[in-house]
Design brief:
- The complex is a heterodimer of chains A (196) and B (400).
- Chain A is α+β, with helices and mostly antiparallel strands and 196 residues long.
- Chain A has 5 helices and 4 strands.
- In chain A, helix 2 (49-57) links the parallel strand 1 (42-45) and strand 2.
- Chain B has 10 helices and 21 strands.
- Chain B has a 6-stranded antiparallel beta barrel with strand order 8-9-12-11-10-21.
- In chain B, strand 5 (96-106) and strand 6 (110-121) form a beta hairpin.
- The radius of gyration of chain B is 26 Å and the shape is globular.
- The N and C termini of chain B lie far apart (59 Å).
- The chains are: A alpha+beta (196), B alpha+beta (400).
- At the A-B interface, helix 1, strand 2, helix 3, strand 4 and helix 5 of A face helix 1, strand 3, helix 5 and helix 9 of B.
């Protein structure tokens, strides 16, 4: 219990400022009129990997992602962190206590800030980064079997939807445009004849 | 039962009190009574800022370095008129620069965050300096936001220090402005120990050295060690995609490694690799290893790489892979990661990767860098590949 108290203390003290962390700004470029060809991109995610993979794969920009290409120099990396609002943390803990006290008859209500970060990593270095955040309130029963990675149906839908937002943002990202241009220079379709 | 209820009520009261105080503190931190009328830049070494820890059991990524950056920005903006992170992509101007060197020492029971810091003015003069540390039970460190909370507390301690704020707020001083691009990088870095090291080789008489991009990426200070001398170097060109870079030393080179022109290599062709592996463990002397081209392709999905068997170690990256005639066939860029394979009971041996030198040639063409290429030739009499290559190979050190 003492540990929970300390965790709450830390979380509350920083929660409000964390919640206001702005999305990562990135230099912008004109939208690509035609998406340049890209190689197979590695993919990794700490959250809802199957759903995000499918959502990204359905976009034009990331149709070439492929989890079976470990040697690709380019990787789309998705990670997530949770922040806690002061009120959200207090109500969540209280809700857990009440739910447990009623042997699960009352549902648990949680409130957290979820930040999902998409990065394009080239040979280990991050060249593109976009972050999306949302305050999620979730109501669930402690006896229910969760199929949503702990996000709830709405939360999972929002997380999956960030894939399309990322694909759209990348279309205007100057660093990603430079990467595409470089790829086409070194490995584009007519390169074979240029390699001396 | 009543005792439990009473304990629950007490807990809720404490939680409410704690959150109220926490909110009040957060508000107070955001709205200081009198911000110092100076612009602050904050330097956090890139290796720290990029650090990520993934705990599979918790399914969460922890970013202790980003926590320090975020905390420093929040506190910096509270105590100064404005604040931004100092890096080669930032284009703001600053009156004062806070150089930080954080270090997490994580042990089984307790973890300690130590931040060495120095406040400099735009001309590089020291305004204040010191060291702060704080510790926490390791098990509590993984609590949500604990990295951030620790960082926030320490940065607040640093920037609210009376001596520091007293000197920083003297409006008769520190009016000059500086920019990240114009600031002396030697004043940023910790010269006690390089954060990474690698290998390179001279590719022209003008003293330009080729290496792997990951050896010199995000290094404010690069040093080339040749013949026992340390030569400062600057980045001339870099491609993360190829994992290739060239640095300028400004020192004429008596020996270079020429590229093999026109043709590729033979499968099974003998190769020699020269490198400076395991900096800090082995003596700073080049290692020469022998092997052959094992495959024209590397890992599935790789681009422009081939596989060779000459042993390499950390620190070999950027080293030349040469033929018996001393022609450059490739640049060492990596090795097969063993971690996952060992767990499966597989122990691969000498599966190493090099970027095909023909891509290195295109890289230098694109960046207008002079190099020498020679037609494929038979092994010259009297001289081995080692004798021809060794004098042109150097060690590279990266300081942040």
């Amino acid at each position: 219990m003492r540990v929970i108290g300390i965790v709450v203390l830390l979380a509350c003290a920083v929660g409000r400022s964390f919640a206001q962390t702005p999305d990562v700004a990135a230099p912008t470029a004109p939208a690509q009129t035609a998406i340049a060809q890209m190689p197979a991109l590695q993919f990794g995610s700490t959250i809802a990997a199957e759903e995000i993979y499918a959502a990204l794969k359905s976009t034009t920009a990331f149709a070439s992602i492929d989890r079976e290409k470990p040697g690709s120099p380019i990787m789309v990396r998705v990670s997530h962190t949770y922040g806690n609002t002061s009120a959200g943390m207090a109500s969540s803990v209280a809700s857990v206590i009440l739910s447990a006290g009623t042997l699960g008859l009352l549902p648990v209500v949680t409130n957290r800030d979820l930040v999902v970060t998409y990065e394009v990593v080239v040979n280990g270095s991050v060249v593109v980064s976009h972050a999306y955040s949302k305050n999620l309130t979730r109501v669930f029963n402690i006896h229910s079997k969760d199929q949503t990675h702990g996000l709830g149906a709405d939360g999972l839908a929002w997380v999956t939807g960030t894939a399309a937002r990322f694909a759209a943002d990348v279309d205007h990202d100057a660093a990603y445009a430079d990467l595409q241009s470089e790829y086409n220079y070194y490995y584009g379709t007519d390169v074979a004849s240029q390699v001396r | 039962m009543s005792a439990r209820r009473s304990a629950g009520v007490s807990l809720l009261f404490v939680l409410t009190l704690v959150c109220t105080l926490g909110s009040a503190w957060a508000d107070n931190a955001k709205k200081p009574r009198a911000a110092i009328e100076r612009s602050l830049a904050i330097y956090v070494p890139h290796a720290e800022g990029e650090a990520r820890i993934f705990i599979p059991q918790l399914g969460t990524v922890f970013a202790p370095g980003k926590a320090i950056e975020d905390a420093a920005l929040l506190v910096g903006r509270s105590y100064f008129k404005s604040a931004f992170l100092f890096n080669d992509r930032s284009n703001g101007t600053f009156n004062l620069l806070l150089v930080t060197h954080p270090k997490w020492d994580t042990r089984e029971k307790s973890s300690v965050l130590t931040v060495k810091y120095k406040l400099l003015d735009a001309a590089g003069a020291t305004v204040a300096e010191g060291e702060r540390k704080n510790d926490i039970d390791t098990v509590k460190l993984l609590a949500t936001n604990a990295f951030y909370a620790m960082s926030l507390g320490l940065m607040r301690d640093i920037l609210s220090d009376d001596a520091l704020t007293g000197r920083a707020s003297d409006l008769s001083l520190h009016a000059a402005t500086g920019t990240p691009a114009a600031f002396d990088p030697n004043l940023l870095v910790n010269r006690d120990k390089p954060v990474k090291s690698g290998t390179g080789f001279f590719i022209n008489a003008g003293g330009q050295v080729m290496t792997a991009a990951h050896v010199v990426h995000d290094c404010p200070v690069i040093e080339v060690k040749a013949d026992g001398k340390a030569i400062p170097a600057t980045l001339a060109a870099s491609s993360l995609l190829l994992d290739l870079a060239v640095v300028d030393t400004g020192a004429p080179a008596a020996h270079i490694v020429p590229l093999r022109a026109g043709t590729s290599f033979e499968l099974g062709e003998a190769v020699t690799n020269v490198g400076f592996p395991l900096e800090g463990v082995l003596a700073a002397s080049p290692n020469v290893t022998r092997g052959n081209v094992s495959s024209r392709a590397a890992l599935a999905g790789s681009l422009g790489q081939f596989q060779f068997s000459a042993p390499v170690q950390p620190g070999s990256s950027g080293g030349p892979v040469v033929s018996d005639a001393g022609e450059l066939l490739g640049v060492t860029v990596g090795t097969l990661s063993l971690t996952g394979l060992i767990q499966k009971g597989v122990l691969p041996q000498n599966v190493n990767f090099a970027l095909d030198a023909r891509h290195a040639a295109r890289f230098m063409d694109r960046n207008k860098i002079t190099f020498v290429s020679v037609p494929a030739r038979a092994k010259p009499d009297g001289k081995s590949a080692t004798e021809m290559t060794l004098p042109a190979v150097v060690q590279l050190l990266c300081y942040q």
